[in-house]
Amino acid sequence: MPTTVRGIARVDHRTKNLVKRIRRGEIAVIQHRDIDSVSAESLARCGVRAVVNADESISGKYPNRGPSILMEHGIPVVDAVGAEIMQAAVEGAEIEIDLATGAVNNGTVCAHGTTLTPDIIAERSELAKTHLQTELRSFVENTLQYVSREEHILLEPARIPELTTSVAGRHALIVVRGEDYRKDLRAIYSYIRDVHPVLIGVDGGADALTELGFRPDIIVGDMDSVSDDVLRCGAELVVHASPEGQAPGKVRLEKLQLEWKPLVARGTSEDVAMLLAYEKGADLIVALGTHTTLIDFLDKGRPGMASTFLTRLKVGNRLVDARGVSQLYSPRLRFREVSFPLATGLVVIFVVLAASDDARRFVEMLGRLVALAFRRVVPGF
Question: For residues 56 and 369, which has the higher predicted lDDT (pLDDT)?
Answer without folding.
Answer: 56
